[in-house]
Design goal:
The protein is mainly beta. Helix content is 11%, strand content 40%.
Length: 94
Amino acid sequence: METNLNNNLQRTSVSVLMINAQGMMLSVLGEDYFVSYNRVPWLRDARISSALNVRMSGAHAIEWPDLDVDLEIDSLKHPERYPLIMKRSPIDSI
């Protein structure tokens, strides 16, 4: 699925180019990015229809509304700036 926002005749879009066992290839604002399931594990077990339902979320982010997943476009360009850190809650051990 491709989503377009027309803003002063400027085309901005996001689309899924390919899905495989390791992740998915996205085209965002004319640039292609591979999103590994290791970095975004919430996409790993998603239904194909939900994974294809991606759209722009403002000018600087994309979202999968069916999955409640949002990514900043900068995290696609510079993944090293966005380490995955999971914070545990004290109630997780109950």
